[in-house]
Amino acid sequence: MDERTKHTSTESPRSMALAYGRHGPRRFRLDLADRFWLRFAGLMLRRPPPDEQGLLLMGCASIHTLFMRYRLDIAWLDAAGRVLACVADLGPWRARLGPRGTAHVLELRVGSLEALGIEVGSRIEHPALQGRSAA
To answer: How far apart are CA 95 and CA 120, in angstroms?
Structure first.
């Protein structure tokens, strides 16, 4: 397996994603959390993600910011990557449940929703979302 795509329980694969929002297509880096412990840990006890980088929690409809030391931007996605809801500047020690139809959650550095033009109705493209359809 290629070193760039190999991952363990403490690291996730990183690749490029596209956000189709109000600013047109914008590229950003995306880490995947596609297993229980990766989703549970999320960005907890880590440094804030760099600009233009996020974490996609696969198969997850809710988030918490317990033990977080910084604020996040959050987008809830359907199975095909369409943005169903967003919360900008969510503080530590909070929990949020996504709207009906949520399949994935995108965690981003605060300010990233605005910078990438992500809003309700925007679409996120990433290989992990290909071949999926909205339920």
So the answer is: 20
pLDDT tens profile 34-51: 988 888 888 877 788 888
CA angle 96, 99, 100 (to 5 degrees): 140
Residues forming a β-bridge with 109:
72
Q: Residue 112's closest CA among 60, 70, 80? A: 70
Q: What is the dihedral of CA 41, 104, 49, 87, to 10 degrees?
A: -110
Burial of 96 (0-12, 13-18, 19+ CB in 10 A): middle
Q: Which domains does the chain have, with CATH numbers?
A: 14-125 (2.60.120.1140)
Q: What is the pLDDT of residues 59-75, one digit of tens each?
A: 999 998 888 889 999 99
